[in-house]
Task: structure prediction
Amino acid sequence: NGFFNCLHVLKYVNLSEILANQLARQIRAIIAHQPVDWVIGSPMAGITFSHDVARALGAPVAIFTEKDPANPGQMLWNRVVIPEGATVLQVEELVTTSKTLTAVKDAVDAGNPNPVTWLPYIPMLVHRPPELPVDSYDNRHVIPLIQRAVWAVDPKECPLCAAGSRRYKPKSHWAELTGQS
Result:
């Protein structure tokens, strides 16, 4: 009942900047003048979007975790060191479950030699959990620009699959889903 193609939107620099500025306004409305020293995003579309949000917030550092090629679903943090006492805000472009969100935080916590001071918020462009409300992950308050519940079910329990519907992944079957190439 829904699909958000954030990469298709965020590839346009002007749209990414507009959306980042709107999210930064929401963040500032909540955190006021609290400093944000580092903004961290996840790969791939999250890299540029978190960078744009960092710029809009006036954060001096914007960086990202990397996917671990040896362990799918895991992230790596090993190129830079967050100084002790620096405040860190994790920004995501899309959150469905908390898997990537948690993997990013876990990688930074494990890979940084100093304790990390996470701000208790997770700003995101699109928050699309299977059910709402979801107000926080890991005791960090969700700040969404767009929030919609998007139906999700295991294929074994899917009534559409049981009726013979083909299961498409939009990344590989976009033309079949939309009639566009």
Notes: Strands lie at 38-41, 61-64, 66-67, 75-76, 87-90, 92-95, 117-118, 121-127, 136-137, 140-147. The first strand starts at residue 38 and ends at 41. The longest helix spans residues 13-31. The chain has a mean pLDDT of 90.
